[in-house]
# Entry
Amino acid sequence: MLPRSNRATKTIFKIFKGLKMSRLLNKITITTLTALTLSLSSYPAAAAIVSTEPQNNDWQFAIAPYAWAVNMNGSTEVGPVHTNVDEDFGDIVEYLNGGGMLWMDVRKGKWSVFFNGLYASLKENDNTKNGPFDVSAKSDFGLFSAGITYELFRHKFANSASQFIIEPYAGARYTVISSTYTLEIKPNVFKATEETKHQWTDPIVGLRFTYDFNDNWDVIVAGDVGGTDRSDDYSYNVTGLLGYSSSDFLEEITWYAGYRTLKQKYITGSEENRFEWDMQIFGPIIGFSFEF
# Structure
């Protein structure tokens, strides 16, 4: 096994490109980072608790599983390999190997605190078209977000259950990605492994607007911006959701469906160590929030 170095990196990329495997490398990287963005789809709308009374100071809790059927358009760059991306949801889930996530939201009065933790593992192995060559990749990553929201404005309409609420929010998101790429020439002729790790923390600020039509139906629109640099590290997104909760059955659960679009750009490193992610991510969202 070769030690990790710039020379090893160059050698591995040259071999991969010679085998016309650069698309495989980038699709794996795309899938990894797309899965990371899935964890953002619930923030902050799907799991949000909106108190029905302005003076309710009881502790309230919510847990919200969710799914985002993402499509992607943009580009990514890993070392010297640059790839334009146009992927639909079916392409993206192909490499998902497993994982788990947990969203929690706690409210007391006008203040609430959220936490979102996610771990996922992706794996790709291609040994069917390259004769003695076995190319594989494995990615493990974690994403942890935390922050606060505050109910800035609430208006209850007279003689109805309708109300309109405005809530700003702020927090931080920590992302860590660890990937291992392996090229093997069988049987036991040559094996090279290259490991990469990227991690960053972004501040995020935004606004959430909620309109309750009645006790059963509501609409949520949320938008935020994040990052530390307008050219190398930034993001913005808009989410719209329609929610429904039954008055007679499973009153603690609110079902959501909607749409989200997210733009991300992150650049770090140079030459073989360069990493660039410039992507527009969009698609429908479904999920539910369990409140207690």
Q: What stands out?
A: The longest strand covers residues 163-185. Residues 164 and 215 are 13 Å apart (CA to CA). Helices lie at 6-18, 22-38, 89-92.
